[in-house]
Write the structure tokens for this entry.
Amino acid sequence: MDPVEIVMKKAGVFIVAAFLVCLSATSFACVGKTLIIGTLKTPIESLEAQLMAVIINERTGTTVNVEYFDTEEQLLAAVKKREVNIYTDNTGRALQQLGMTLDGDAETIYTEVKEAFRKQFHLVMLNPFGKTSDDDANNAYIDVPVVAEGILIDFPALPRVINKLASIAEDKNYPKLIASVESGDKPNQVARDFLKKKRFI
């Protein structure tokens, strides 16, 4: 067989294989190496989104885009449409989405909500960031990174990378990071500087 024909044949096999990979992820667009993190425009959630974006990009080389939403309803609608792959939820807010009422400590509520989210919404709650606000009357509500279950097929290392940020809100310098964002510093730069200081990147 002519060398050119061999190359063309191999190229054709590769294209077909790539097409089949796209088809296998029927509920998610085949977006290559790009992940979408959705977030509200609050200082806390913007910081959490950028912490995830920076650590994912630096540790995996994956392109990560952060998209901002004006309301919780808009964000959750994008999650349901599979337009957002990753976002931060709060276990108190998650209970409302599930239509559940639950008493108990932070670990109990997190465990119940995590199981229900996977069964009902096909969303995977990873290790919590922790409590990032004093506004909630219930101290058992904590912030948690959430990943769409379907993208874990193509990004199996994602939980391990994001879980590096587990309990990050308990770091003594975390309130200063939020204050920096509130004062007008860019969340991406605040996140990057912090992760470098912690040697996470």
Summary: Residues 3-31 have pLDDT under 50 and may be disordered. The longest helix spans residues 3-24.
